[in-house]
Amino acid sequence: MKKLLALTLCLAGALPLAAQAQQGSAANFGPSQGDREFSLSGTGSSDRKFDNTSFGISGEMGWYLRDHFILGIRQSVNYANIESERLRDDFWNGSTRGYANLQTRDGRLRPFGGGSLGVIYGDGVRDSGFAGLEGGLKYYVLENTYVLGRVEYQWFFRRSSDAEEAFRDGAFAYTVGLGYNF
Q: Residue 21 above 50 pLDDT?
């Protein structure tokens, strides 16, 4: 219940940003083709029932191939303290993935969507590949600086033939952070 409340408060905190997006000219905000971006975010992940949650940090570097199309790489490190009837333990894990996103080209508020493909590894997870679908919002507070919120649905597999079946047993990862275009 606490986890759901925390997620709700994070999302509610973004509402004032959406309201401000309706004000002012946004002609000079955001990236152009050839620009790069770097972001640093707080991350979290949960199973489908929001049990066994972990938190961590994520950094990403992306390149704009077009004004609205970005390719990049993302690195995450997470810590979890898992409790169950049979187990109580601390775990560290990480993930490395490439991503591709499309986003709107105009305005301070820029919705985006895309996908990712990578690997997850560490103490608390089974080392495997994963694929993900993602969506979110970037809000430009300055010409090249933005606040971002992203939700990913990831599914895990050890062999490519397992990927389709694994979709139903995926997990959510959510991110809130800051980024900069240069």
A: no
> CA Rg, the chain, in Å?
17
Those residues whose C-beta lies under 8 Å from the C-beta of residue 25, and which sit 6 or more positions away, are none
How crowded is residue 105: how many other Cβ atoms within 10 Å of its Cβ? 13
Give pTM, 2 decimals.
Answer: 0.74
User: Is 19 a residue whose pLDDT tops 60?
Assistant: no
Please tell me the distance from the alpha carbon of residue 52 to that of residue 62, in angstroms, as a whole number. 30
Q: Two tokens at 165?
A: 């079946």
| Amino acid letter for position 163 | A
Q: Which two tokens stand for residue 155?
A: 């599914």
| Mean pLDDT, all residues of the chain | 82
Q: What's the first-to-final CA gap in the chain, in angstroms? A: 40
What percent of the chain is predicted at pLDDT more than 90? 51
Please tell us whether the domain made up of 2-20+33-181 is placed in CATH 2.40.160.20: yes
Instruction: Measure the CA–CA gap between 80 and 90, rounded to whole angstroms.
Output: 6
Look up residue 127 and give its amino acid. D
Return the domain boundaries, the chain. 2-20+33-181
> How far, in whole angstroms, is CA 30 from its chain's centroid?
19
The rounded distance, in Å, linking the Cα atoms of 40 and 175 is 10
